[in-house]
Amino acid sequence: MKEIFQEFLTGERALFQGKDLHIVNTIFDDGESPLKHSENIKVENSMFKWKYPFWYAKHIDVKTSTFFEMARAGIWYSEDVSLTDCLVEAPKEFRRCKGVKIKNVSFPNAAETFWFCSDVEMEKVVAKGTYFGMGSENLKIRDFNLYGDYCFDGAKNVEISEARLLSKDCFWNAENITIKDSFISGEYMGWNSKNITLIDCTVESLQGMCYIDNLKMQNCQLINTTLAFEYSTVEADITTKIDSVINPSGGVIKAEHIDELIIEKDKVDPSKTKIICRS
Length: 279
What we know:
Blueprint: E1 2-5, E2 8-9, E3 19-24, E4 27-28, E5 39-44, E6 47-48, E7 54-55, E8 58-63, E9 66-67, E10 75-76, E11 79-88, E12 98-107, E13 118-128, E14 137-147, E15 156-166, E16 175-180, E17 183-185, E18 193-199, E19 202-204, E20 212-222, E21 233-238, E22 242-246, E23 250-255, E24 258-262, E25 273-277
Parallel strand pairs: 1-3, 2-4, 3-5, 4-6, 5-8, 6-9, 7-10, 8-11, 9-11, 11-12, 12-13, 13-14, 14-15, 15-16, 15-17, 16-18, 17-19, 18-20, 19-20, 20-21, 21-23, 22-24, 23-25
């Protein structure tokens, strides 16, 4: 590989169509698309300070590097991309990418990040921003903290564990979602979705888990959760009380206690839902 060491690169397409490059201690300053159409690139201890650094790129490995705020929309339409021990300040990172691995990375401005991507693995990620993960599929995520509403809208085939999500309207229009050992706080969680499973999770949600086809909750806690399960088919084993439940479409709901149970016979068939209160 050709080594580029401690360079200061400016101007549009500074390393356009670069191949087999090892880039170390280098700054990409004013100039769009420095590594557009690049392939087989290794980057270490470097800085990206301007827009669109990696578009239509393949086999990209970036370590201990920084994407500044103006490196926005930085990695789009790319394949086989790895970021490790990086700080990504820029929004709109990762759009329509395939085969992405992220480890120990912070996204403090993660608005519209990871849209319509596939085959993504994340570990030890912190992100803050709205609409994270929209339309993406085949995601495996562990040790993940997210601060931002509307995450994973339209996502499919997602596995999340050891996460803390502060997100209103999360997992809308989603399909095949499994969440384990996690905490979720946000209104209107999971509407209009299909096949959502929560295992050993704690949830706080106003009108959460409504309009879901095939919701499963195993050994979960619901805290300050009201008007839950409206028009959802449910198999829920809740280890705490539930503040209120309204008009589930069917299934079984187990809880310590339900403070308010609302079943309107003109809207749902009560015989299709079994309610079990342990206390």
